[in-house]
Design a protein that fits this description.
heterodimer; A: 443 residues; alpha/beta; Rossmann fold; 2 domains; 6-stranded mixed sheet; B: 288 residues; TIM Barrel
């Protein structure tokens, strides 16, 4: 197996040089362009002002829910609108981020990885060092605080890889709230350590067998439960998808990642990064790191979808690269679907990216061309997973390894003085069984 | 009901005033409420579901709701979900549901047909072409579950001649009613329970309190669904409202007749239609 010899095959030297030259030429042009003021206001003043009152980012987003769910959505919208204006809410959340989560997370200069790739300086935004091992906890704590403000006494959540479920179960333990996590039966099977973690934290894990028994079905089931229990229940969504206000709210709470990265990069390097890379499933870690950079046109933003066995194989989770716009889970966005509008199965080695949609703001950023969406295959992610472990002593989540795979392709084509930042959104301890299985190792 | 459009060649002639309004007017004149059974198109196979559809008016259906299968029916309980999965497995699509309507209209020009489904298959089909094909096939009304009034411009601009049936829930705020009713036609679908389809039964006292609230805001007929299972409950529903929608309990009857592989058996069609007959008796006896 090519993925398991313990290293990454470097691109042929000739191709590498050509690519590097092409990129430098391009990069020089782009840099020259952004140093001048924009000639006219052909663009909106800010790309950070969305969504509009309808919850839309361009044509994407919205509130596509049954009337039965509308009161729930309206209640969350009103509560969020009030909370975000309340300095006390912000203070309490920042306190939790600092003393409970351990923020700010470091921006680590990955020197060995940089030398190995031989191009841009590679920095890792260490979200995997957060309490619970991923970025999910940032938005969860804020949402649980919101639920308490709303007087809700029960929390539900959906989870794929289990990271959001663990984060929600953690916050519920901290705030002494009963918690039910909906998880596709297929994922319960392949993410046993996280299932056990959630139970240890006192949460109830509801294995969802309806539909295809994966993340999308877990979300359907959570929505169904919520409709029937609107009085006492808050639905803590884990990503920047779902009906408004969730895409905006989760993005706002995750933007702490990008805010810190921006400050840290300025402090270390005296300037902003040239490229920011992040893996995208639903896209909460990516929105979190991208959003504070949206108006810095000199910073190139790259989202990396899961290409699974390859886009052309049909077995992937790349909503933008291999899907088309539609409506699912309350929002209009890019989706994996057949020509009849039936949602098709996503595939990725990473359970956290195994979702047939993507947050609506990403769909918009793709259409206006502000963010470039590429894809990395299962085997590219597996190679990146191993490379990062060996060179940096950091075992990344398989989700983050997709982003890293893009860095591995891109950094060598960039000049040595340029800066590329990867959002290392989670740690890979949860994935060692999957990776071992693919390496043919029994543990 | 909007203005009537000229009929394209090979299309079903529209009924002036619309079949739904005419049917409710006729029932009102007769002094009784409407029974509106539901069937999922292509469940468990196209021929069986077509036979059930054809037989429903004879068994006492006043209007019929046809479910369009979707992979992710977030507002539906397990019974309707599984019906959708069987239908998809049997090749069910939006185009297939429209073909069933065309077939049905060959021998029934008067029973109103309502398509109920989710938005994504309609977007994939193309909302404008979808509405054209609905009119042409003889569909009378649409219930698009995950398209609240705020998002109605996805389909409504193309829906002249089709009734847009809106859902009102027990949790729908008084202040929101005007928004929900704006642009609604045909009838109002009152969701009798706080929850998903087929999971609980409607409470007669709750209904008696809720329906007058809607009546005060609209002249449209009101039908009750989501919690109506038995002939007794259907009878209670039409004592306070103009119609009763029954879905899950009829699907359960169908499921009870399937063989181990989930295929229809010779008794399937008759069993479902007997269920419709029993409900019709309940509805017809309700106001005696």
């Amino acid at each position: 197996m090519g993925c398991c010899d313990g290293g990454v095959t470097p691109p042929p030297p000739q191709a590498k040089t050509l690519l590097a030259r092409a990129f430098r030429a391009n990069h020089a042009r782009e840099t020259a362009a952004v140093n001048k003021p924009l000639p006219n206001a052909s663009r909106p003043n800010s790309l950070r002002s969305g969504p509009d009152a309808r919850g839309r980012f361009g044509d994407f987003g919205g509130r596509f829910v049954a009337e039965t769910l509308m009161p729930n959505i309206t209640e969350v919208q009103e509560a969020y609108d009030a909370a975000r204006k309340d300095p006390e809410f912000d203070r309490e959340w920042r306190r939790l981020l600092k003393d409970y989560v351990g923020r700010p997370s470091p921006l680590w200069f990955a020197e060995r990885l940089t030398n190995h790739l031989g191009g841009a300086k590679v920095y890792l935004k260490r979200e995997e060092l957060n309490h619970t091992g991923a970025h999910k906890i940032n938005a969860v704590l804020a949402q649980i605080m919101l639920a308490r403000r709303m007087g809700k006494t029960r929390i539900i959540a959906e989870t794929g890889a289990g990271q959001h479920g663990v984060a929600t179960a953690t916050a519920c333990a901290l705030f002494d709230l009963p918690c039910t996590v909906f998880m596709g039966a297929t994922d319960v099977e392949r993410q046993k350590p996280n299932v056990f973690r959630m139970k240890l934290l006192g949460a109830e894990v509801n294995a969802v067998t309806s539909g295809s028994a994966t993340l999308k079905d877990a979300m359907n089931e959570a929505l169904r439960y919520w409709v029937a229990n609107v009085q006492d229940t808050y639905y803590c969504i884990g990503t920047v998808a779902g009906p408004a206000p969730y895409p905006q709210m989760v993005r706002d709470f995750q933007s702490v990642i990008g805010d810190e990265t921006r400050e840290q990069c300025l402090a270390i390097e005296g300037r902003l990064p040239d490229v920011v890379v992040c893996a995208v499933g639903g896209g909460s870690s990516a929105m979190g790191i991208f959003h504070p950079f949206l108006d810095d046109s000199e910073v190139k933003l790259v989202g990396v979808e899961a290409a699974g066995h390859g886009i052309e194989s049909g077995a992937h989770a790349a909503a933008i690269n291999g899907g088309s716009p539609g409506v699912l889970h309350g929002n209009k966005t890019y989706l994996l679907q057949d020509r009849h509008g039936q949602i098709t199965e996503a595939h990725s080695i990473s359970a956290g990216l195994d979702y047939p949609g993507i947050g609506p703001e990403h769909s918009w950023l793709h259409e206006i061309g502000r963010v470039e969406y590429t894809a990395a295959t299962d085997s590219e992610a597996l190679e990146a997973f191993q490379l990062c472990s060996k060179l940096e002593g950091i075992i990344p989540a398989l989700e983050s390894a997709h982003g890293l795979a893009e860095v591995i392709k891109r950094a060598p084509t960039m000049p040595k003085e340029s800066i590329i930042v990867l959002n290392l959104s989670g740690r890979g301890d949860k994935d060692i069984f999957t990776v071992a299985h693919h390496m043919g190792v029994e543990i | 009901m909007g203005e009537t459009l000229p009929t394209a060649e090979g299309c079903i002639e529209p009924v002036p005033g619309g079949r739904i309004a005419r049917r409710f007017a006729k029932l009102r004149a007769e002094g009784r409420g409407a029974l509106m059974p539901f069937l999922e198109a292509y469940d468990p196979d196209p021929a069986t579901s077509m036979a059930i559809l054809r037989g429903m008016p004879g068994a006492g259906a006043d209007l019929i709701e046809i479910g369009v299968p979707f992979t992710d029916p977030a507002a539906d309980g397990p019974t309707v979900q599984k019906a959708g999965q069987r239908a998809l497995k049997a090749g069910g699509t939006l185009a297939g549901a429209l073909a069933m309507v065309r077939d049905f209209r060959r021998d029934d020009e008067s029973t109103p047909l309502v398509l109920m489904g989710y938005l994504n298959p309609i977007l994939a089909y193309g909302p404008e072409r979808f509405c054209e094909d609905c009119r042409c096939s003889g569909v009378d009304g649409l219930i698009i579950v995950d398209m609240p009034p705020e998002e109605a411009d996805e389909v409504q601009p193309f829906a002249q001649g089709l009734d847009m049936i809106r859902l009102v829930a027990p949790t729908t705020l008084e202040s929101r009613l005007p928004t929900v009713l704006d642009g609604a036609s045909g009838f109002i679908y009152y969701v009798a329970i706080t929850g998903i389809t087929g999971t609980r039964s409607a409470d007669a006292a709750d209904l008696a309190a809720a329906i007058p609230r809607i009546r005060a805001a609209t002249d449209l007929p009101v039908a009750i669904g989501f919690g109506v299972r038995t002939p007794q409950q259907a009878a209670e529903a039409v004592q306070v409202a103009d119609g009763a929608v029954v879905a899950s309990s009829l699907i359960e009857i169908l499921v009870g007749t399937l063989d181990e592989e989930g295929r229809a058996t010779p008794g399937t069609v008759r069993a479902v239609l007997d269920g419709v007959r029993a409900l019709a008796e309940g509805v017809r006896g309700a106001r005696d």
